[in-house]
Sequence to fold (246 residues):
Amino acid sequence: MIARTKVVPPVTPRIIRTSPRQRLTRYGLLFLAFVLVTGIAYETGRRQSSGNAVPTAMQTQASAQRIAELEKQRDSLKQQVVELEHSVKQVTQALAEERVRHRAQARAATSPPPRKAPAPKPRTRATVPAHPTLGLQGIRIGQTDSKNIFQVSFSVINPAGTTDRVTGTIWIAVNGFLDKEPVRLSFKRLSSDRRSYVKMGFNRKQDVAEKIVLPDGFRPKNILIEAKPYGEKYTGTSQKISWTTH
Fold:
């Protein structure tokens, strides 16, 4: 008599995907951690300053070193908060676009065919859009004396023609291949001073010229530039061009 063996099917691991709301929660927790660390650092420095009325030379040196370390941690956390704010804004915008898309699909499924709109009346004078969109002009990649250093120049403009002050951030990234693997290099990795973005502030036009340093063995494919204004009065813009040096 042949004994029967029970075959157990393999267990497939479940992939857990984090939703945009979970990512927003994590960003909020990290921001609260930054505030808590900054407050603790400030209170520690204050207590050390008030508790030692006549510090010795060694205590003074140790306190100075500690303060320098705390200030360095504070600056690093500030930089992370700026980057997280950028990521949170992107996630929030994606959620808003997703809600608008779902509502449009629901209306299209239940509403009757649209009526033919009447011909628009001729305008007597030009009107300014409610939220003017910024523009990018003259993107240029220049070769320098070094094979790994390039000059990236372009202009950000306000096509509405108003004189209002436009402020925000400009983000630069280069897409390419490193060791045959696709890689996106952010401006923080490309800039010599490790900045994450370029500050934006102009009335009509801002000319930008930045040097970027590519790592050895990296083959660039294209460059992406994004202008993101603060507030809701203006709409940001982005442009991607192929990597061509002049």
Remarks:
- The chain has a mean pLDDT of 80.
